Amino acid sequence: MSDTLTPDVIGRRVEVNGEHATVRFAGVVPPVAGPWLGVEWDNPERGKHDGSHEGTVYFKCRHPTGGSFIRPNKVNFGTDFLTAIKNRYVLEDGPEEDRKEQIVTLGNKPVETVGFDSLMKQQSQLSKLQEVSLRNCAVSCAGEKGGVAEACPNIRRVDLSKNLLSSWDEVIHIADQLRHLEVLNLSENKLKFPSGSALTGTFSALKVLVLNQTGITWAEAHVQCGSSRHERCQQVRGPVHGAEFSTSNCVISAKDIYPSEFLFQVLRCAAWCPGLEELYLESNNIVISERPTDVLQTVKLLDLSSNQLIDENQLYLIAHLPRLEQLILSDVGISSIHFPDAGIGTCFPVAGSNFCKSSTKHTAFHLFPFAVFQWSFFNELDKLPSLRALSCLRNPLTKEDKEANMTRQLIIASIGQLKTLNKCEILPKERRTAELDYRKAFGNEWKQAGGHQDPDKNRLSEEFLRAHPRYQFLCLKYGAPEDWELKTQQPFMLKNQLLTLKIKYPDQLDQKVLEKQLPGSMTIQKVKGWLSRLLKVPVSDLLLSYESPKLRPHDDIKLSLDKIKLENDLQSLRFYSVENEDCLLVRW
Amino acid sequence: MRECLSIHIGQAGIQIGDACWELYCLEHGIQPNGVVLDSQPDQLENAKMEHTNASFDTFFCETRAGKHVPRALFVDLEPTVIDGIRTGQRRSLFHPEQLLSGKEDAANNYARGRYSVGSKIIDLVLERTRKLAEQCGGLQGFLIFRSFGGGTGSGFTSLLMERLTGEYSRKTKLEFSVYPAPRISTAVVEPYNCVLTTHSTTEHTDCTFIVDNEAIYDICQRKLGVERPSYASINRLMVQAVSSITASLRFEGPLNVDLIEFQTNLVPYPRIHFPMTAFAPIVSADKAYREQFSVSDITTACFESSNQLVKCDPRLGKYMACCLLYRGDVVPKEVNAAIAATKLRHSVQFVDWCPTGFKVGINNRPPTVMPGGDLAKVHRAVCMLSNTTAIVEAWARLDHKFDLMYAKRAFLHWYLREGMEEAEFLEAREDLAALERDYEEVGQSF
Fold first, then answer.
1. What is the CATH number of domain A7-74?
2. Which one, A98, A250, A289, A311, has least CB within 10 Å?
3. Is B286 in contact with A119 (Cβ distance < 8 A)?
């Protein structure tokens, strides 16, 4: 193990009993004899101290209990790429007894396997391998030059997640040898920025790049930068501009706003991969700081989920990616969104953009009533002309079961071009229902804001237009809401059923005009009975009719219409369409 | 030449069939018009294509013009659903003779499907089946897709199964059946249809893989984030399991794991032939790379009830047999490790009398997903078929519903009107009671 204690061991990634760490120190720690490695754990709870021992600072850790000293022989520095492949896929030529031992029993029943032998033989032919999955296989380096290219040149998809790769140099060495590489998964590796630049063409065939949870070590760069961090960052940024890399997905720590080196990894990676179509950057604490103009132009899918530092302003910067079709934004720091009306909103070329918002953080940030947040958010999305699919499950707005249906309708009505919501197709009928409901639900507000059925008198307030930008369009589509539509239905109670009637006596002008509330369901017989008691006139002598201010008599039918006789004693007042404010005429 | 004929019956069968052939075509690189997508630029890809082509003969028949026609027959007693295929994207994939529809539907009535309406079309169906069978060098068996609840699915299938047994007595008949879900129901008479059809097809079927809509609906909602799953989403998920099951028949090579071999393992008694299906991983497309699915992860997952395609609790029963069908980038030693780990984690209880019970196969072709679908593309998947006594729960539930209605003779007149007799109901119900007892018996220890 003495050879591993050369200074270049510092910065390497190691594995100890399944836990991953980065080597920060190698040497002697008095008073204990022998070589030690000082490591910083990925999981800070695993360590004991911050790199200092008995007053001497051997190395620095981000976390006060992130560091440990470990004997070099307990540490796994990993293997090279080819060995890892061989370990996983190549059949060991062990004796037959070994094979026997492999038979698993469940309870006391042996497990029968079918076709394992031939499968193993086939997988052993490395040159035919197209897909290699080496997750958690402790790969730390590329190995001999050309070795990979010779053994398995046809690999297309490589999963190198959760390995011990410490630097992009090694990744580039591996990728250099794989001509057909299309999918590369480097999640959960903590990669240092490469010393040299990648050869052009290294990632020429690459279509999918996965870099989930790789940015956790942005602080590593800080440690290395040391005091000159600021200058170095400036320096790096300079050439970037010179070479017209105008994109940079910056990683900024919560404590420190200087961009670390990792951000340039993302930015440079993008430049290396001219044909990149899918880029996954989940959980990286990324901050988008510049508009990509030269790189990422072919990207169709961008996953920025779980990057809490992304806010609405940063979204404009990626708004100009010409091919972007899908954007995954679950659990990001966006609490509201606003696209300037004419400019960027319309040039957001997202064809079928898929905003997946599933953050529960929103409630924490936003103490607005849900509705306020909702309108601004979905109305802004309406400005994206090619938005086709939207998923927004598990967020504060759609959480409640009871209102899920309601929310769905409102979203559909607010975003006109949407075809799929929460992975369910929106059928024309559903859209129509939703839009009609929306039109009706906000009709009263519209009325108050100055809306009118007659286009000439229609003077809507700015405020309303801002809150309901599609309302005018819906009025054009379905017609403006009529007054009767906007009346709220009263609950069915006797109180609401009462008709206020004036009771007149055209033949007895000396009698006072009486105003009375009667239920609409009262029969004529009952009305007459009540009147006879009131007027002391026998029931049989009473003749009832009514006139209504609504029945503006036409000339010819004047006589017959303005007084409607209430003849049938068994019918109710409602049967004769007696309405509020009508006049009941009583004769005898 | 071990060809398989697929017969899709009734609305459920046809819609599943549509999704099924869509996926098969995708897996074998066949375009919707039946032409194989070839001329890959590099040789390796071509070699792979040849390798693939060599074996899908079992499911596709190549015409002299180079088109590949599915060995499938679609039958329905009314035309609307089949018209969907006749006018759909894959209209030129099928020969018009493969799409058979009557004019009068079975109206959710077993009696109509089997007797009055079904008997008019059965001879035509058998003739078409014969035609398809004659194109085969050595017919291996039939795969039948249908639902238990519908009129055509229950009634016509039982009639067809009887006739198929008569004509092709030695051929295997496997069923993929949609079992009436406990809470979601499309017809009130589902329990009648289901009991009647189970009774009349038990002796004609070799193995029935049952799935239920409610279980898949829940998976779609919970795991895939589909707010209101449509039949299309449900079917696309279900055919992933179907594809895994039939993969061994469609992809040849030294690793061919024959389904028939598994079936021998799965069915210890002729009547106990209702294995439960589970599938893993089920992950939505936008989380494709966010979660990792190692062999042990997916093995563990398929023992969880949330990945089952039938609603029942496997902890309440004992396993008689269990088959794990892996696909994709799976290494034997990982499988062994995963199963050993399962042993520690789960109380997988086997019946005493079964000497082995656990069988594992690997097919190295990774699963394919529909582009733009809800499912994410994964490198590996596993489909578990397990014959467990827990499934008796499903039958008991169904029998109970049957009893409730039959006690009052509710809805019975619809069946009697078509010429059935009450005795048939009693007989079927007794048979189901016997099936429940059979399950109880096999679960008992010595």
1. 2.30.30.190
2. A98
3. no
